[in-house]
């Protein structure tokens, strides 16, 4: 095993040295409108400033598995990777991501506040540099809900008042929390209840009441499509996707912000890059996560910047010309009742609860 | 001949060397040349097929991470009785701190936590949270450690934690295979998973069952089409052939998404039926996001793999056999059933093997149109590869799938005979 590994590593190093020129870096992200917002807000200004060519790779959905495979092969071809916080924690645990010291590696806020304070609690892992706050929340068809549009997340479980299909993500995370809240569990107790086997059964029993009315989605684009087709009356997805259905495609859809679940998306730098590439990646990160750049991204997509100091700088949509602040999940009007994805809890319970959830789905 | 060679001693070639030697040399040279001609393909197959499969087989039993990360602890735990219901003594804790100081330094402790979390919920955060404080301890001067560890995290005071480490310490494990058949490795030996976590056996069964249905549907649909293709005049059959091949050339994702548009409740089929008044508006058919959707979409996608081998076999069936049968008074049915059909069986066999083996490995189509009841075992494999990162379990599932395919192939060979398969 050992000699082959060394041989492979040597071969990989040789190709890496020959393949990547000093003026190129590969940035991995999610594709679609999200990558476009990063291109406009980060990549183009950075290339202009430094002359570095940025190559895009839309592989974020498989980033964890691919990074692990690259690490085993000893040939890491990515320089900066955009992942959700839960994946960043996994990568950090696996030793696949570089640990970041916010005070030396990230830019301070314009008023001198250190990066660590500016990001605050959002620095959920030692390897993770937060970029945006997004939320998973519900949208509904305004023409299919009658005269009483839903204001409460429990409308999802109320098939009498709101008949029709609803869409939920094909995984336990988020759905279990909503089910418990709507089954009368207090918000502060949700994770204590969910940690017990009885609590998990309780959540699944609540979900079972609407099981026949649910279309389960696995890609973020599914719910917007189903809403636009009138296939469902309401469904969960990422708030930015709903923004584009409502504001860009002008579909009869509205947001139900109640009990939205905040999650973070941001950067990691793969561990094991050569000194030169790591330096370049860090330089990019320093630039792309400063206060102005994070605020700029909100011109193109309705996700909230992760720095406190960026919020006041959020302006208007670059093409539609509408104010972006009221469309941010973090806007006080929208954020009356919110959750933050419980990273610690799900890192422990994900394997267990997900297995139960999938078994329940298949019944 | 024998007499002559006996009389004249060994036969000599033109250059004077014994003929036997010269022959052997030229044969060897020929073999070498043949080997060199196939060498590119051989190397390609070895590196892109045999090596990955071997590594997958190996990964499904490989479990050296526990021993490599906690070598002293694993040794110390040998003397601890996991059935005693009590925590181990100080020697284990001391060994554990020594191991963890090294592991935290190399940042491998969280990796071990993720590995053990597949077996016992909570291990991930136990290792992650304790890591920083444990790494600061000095094994030489800070002992004894038992109290300190329980102080850092109460999980270290649970006998269960140590039992899990001990149970999963062997470098070669059957744990992943047990998980793959809804069982688990415990100190008391292999046990069933709790009922509410059993899913994989059911998915294996469903995958095989639905693949059989899809293969059957393909046979029924492809047979008349292939018959037409093989018997119609060349010009017409070429046109028809293009109709078969056109979807074959279209991207899999496009075709699957098209089925979504066709089958959903506000989709083309339902809209048409409602418009015709055959179905009430509030009782639209549910024909997607279930097994039916998967069967329809996959039958359509795999149909060309059935038509093409059938067609090429049927083309070789001489038309005068059926004419002869009819001239001797056989009815149309008898002619077909006794004369034509038996000759077309090799095509059905080849098509069925192709379609069935492709079907049981299918992943993207069931994911898109299968809802919850139409997904296959490959969807779980994909989940464990890309989301849960439990590659050991994914490898075990893949190995079982491979074994099932080989078993079925063997059965097919015994029952039908593999010589009875023709691609044309």
From TrEMBL, chain A:
Keywords: Signal
Positions in coiled-coil regions: none
SUPFAM superfamilies, alphabetized: Periplasmic binding protein-like II
Highest taxon, organism lineage: Bacteria
First and last residue of the signal peptide: 1-22
PANTHER family: ABC TRANSPORTER SUBSTRATE-BINDING PROTEIN (PTHR30222:SF2), SPERMIDINE/PUTRESCINE-BINDING PERIPLASMIC PROTEIN (PTHR30222)
Protein's UniProt name: Putative spermidine/putrescine transport system substrate-binding protein
Organism annotation: Ruegeria conchae
From TrEMBL, chain B:
Matching Pfam families: BPD_transp_1
Subcellular location as annotated: Cell membrane
Keyword Zinc-finger: no
Membrane topology designation: Multi-pass membrane protein
Keyword check for Transmembrane: yes
Assigned protein family: Belongs to the binding-protein-dependent transport system permease family. CysTW subfamily.
Protein name as catalogued: Putative spermidine/putrescine transport system permease protein
Species, as recorded: Ruegeria conchae
């Amino acid at each position: 095993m050992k000699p082959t590994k060394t041989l492979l590593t040597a071969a990989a190093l040789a190709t890496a040295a020959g393949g990547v020129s000093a003026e190129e870096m590969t940035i991995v992200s999610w594709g679609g409108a999200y990558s476009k917002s990063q291109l406009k807000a980060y990549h183009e200004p950075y290339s202009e400033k430094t002359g570095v060519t940025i190559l895009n790779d839309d592989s974020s959905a498989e980033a964890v598995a691919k990074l692990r495979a690259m690490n085993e092969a000893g040939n890491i071809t990515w320089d900066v990777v955009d992942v959700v916080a839960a994946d960043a924690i996994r990568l950090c645990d696996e030793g696949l991501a570089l640990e970041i010291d916010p005070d030396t590696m990230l830019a301070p806020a314009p008023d001198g506040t250190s990066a660590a304070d500016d990001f605050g609690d959002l620095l959920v892992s030692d390897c993770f540099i937060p970029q945006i706050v997004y939320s998973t929340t519900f949208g509904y068809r305004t023409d299919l809900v009658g005269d009483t549009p839903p204001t409460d997340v429990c409308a999802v479980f109320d098939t009498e008042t709101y008949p029709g299909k609803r869409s939920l993500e094909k995984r336990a995370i988020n759905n279990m929390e909503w089910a418990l809240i709507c089954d009368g569990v207090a918000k502060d107790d949700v994770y204590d209840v969910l940690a017990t086997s009885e609590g998990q059964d309780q959540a699944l029993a609540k979900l079972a009441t609407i099981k026949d009315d649910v279309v389960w989605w696995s890609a973020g684009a599914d719910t917007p499509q189903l809403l636009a087709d009138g296939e469902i009356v309401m469904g969960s997805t990422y708030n930015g996707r709903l923004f584009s259905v409502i504001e860009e495609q002008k579909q009869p859809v509205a947001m139900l912000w109640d009990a939205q679940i905040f999650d973070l998306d941001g950067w990691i730098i793969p561990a094991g890059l050569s000194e030169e590439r790591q330096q370049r990646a860090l330089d990019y990160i320093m630039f792309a996560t400063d206060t102005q750049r994070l605020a700029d991204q909100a011109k193109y997509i309705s996700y909230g910047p992760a720095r406190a100091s960026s919020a006041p700088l959020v302006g208007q949509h670059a093409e539609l010309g509408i104010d972006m602040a009221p469309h941010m999940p973090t806007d006080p009007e929208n954020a009356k009742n919110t959750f933050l994805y419980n990273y610690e809890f799900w890192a422990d319970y994900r394997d267990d609860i997900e297995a139960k959830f999938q078994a329940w789905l298949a019944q | 001949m024998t007499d002559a060679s006996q009389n004249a001693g060994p036969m000599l070639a033109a250059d004077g060397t014994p003929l036997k030697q010269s022959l052997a040399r030229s044969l060897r040279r020929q073999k070498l040349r043949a080997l060199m001609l196939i060498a590119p393909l051989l190397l390609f197959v070895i590196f892109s097929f045999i090596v990955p499969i071997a590594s997958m087989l190996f990964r499904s039993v490989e479990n050296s991470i526990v021993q490599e990360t906690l070598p002293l602890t694993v040794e110390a735990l040998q003397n601890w009785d996991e059935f005693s219901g009590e925590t181990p003594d100080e020697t284990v804790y001391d060994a554990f701190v020594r191991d963890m100081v090294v592991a935290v330094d190399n940042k491998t402790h969280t990796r071990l936590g993720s590995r053990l979390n597949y077996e016992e919920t909570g291990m991930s955060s136990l290792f992650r949270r304790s890591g920083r404080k444990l790494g600061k301890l000095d094994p030489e001067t800070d002992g004894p450690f038992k109290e300190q560890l329980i102080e850092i995290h109460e999980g270290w005071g649970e006998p269960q934690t140590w039992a899990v480490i001990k149970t999963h310490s062997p470098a070669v494990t059957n744990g992943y295979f047990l998980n793959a058949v809804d069982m688990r490795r415990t100190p008391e030996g292999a046990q069933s998973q709790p009922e509410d976590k059993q899913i994989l056996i059911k998915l294996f069964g469903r995958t095989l069952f639905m693949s059989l249905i899809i293969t059957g549907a393909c046979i029924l649909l492809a047979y008349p089409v292939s018959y037409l293709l093989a018997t119609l005049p060349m010009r017409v059959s070429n046109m028809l052939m293009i109709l078969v091949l056109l979807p074959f050339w279209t991207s899999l994702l496009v075709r699957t998404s098209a089925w979504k548009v066709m089958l959903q409740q506000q989709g083309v089929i339902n809209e048409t039926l409602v418009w015709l008044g055959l179905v009430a508006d509030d009782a639209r058919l549910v024909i997607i996001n279930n097994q039916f959707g998967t069967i329809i979409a996959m039958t359509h996608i795999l149909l060309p793999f059935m038509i093409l081998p059938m067609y090429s076999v049927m083309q070789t069936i001489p038309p005068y056999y059926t004419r002869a049968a009819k001239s001797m008074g056989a009815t149309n049915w008898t002619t077909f059933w006794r004369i034509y059909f038996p000759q077309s069986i090799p095509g059905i066999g080849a098509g069925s093997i192709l379609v069935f083996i492709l079907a049981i490995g299918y992943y993207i189509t069931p994911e898109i149109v299968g809802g919850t009841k139409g997904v296959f075992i490959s969807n779980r494999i994909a989940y464990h590869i890309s989301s849960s990162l439990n590659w050991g379990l994914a490898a075990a599932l893949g190995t079982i799938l491979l074994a099932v395919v080989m078993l079925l192939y063997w059965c097919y060979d015994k029952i039908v005979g593999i010589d009875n398969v023709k691609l044309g």
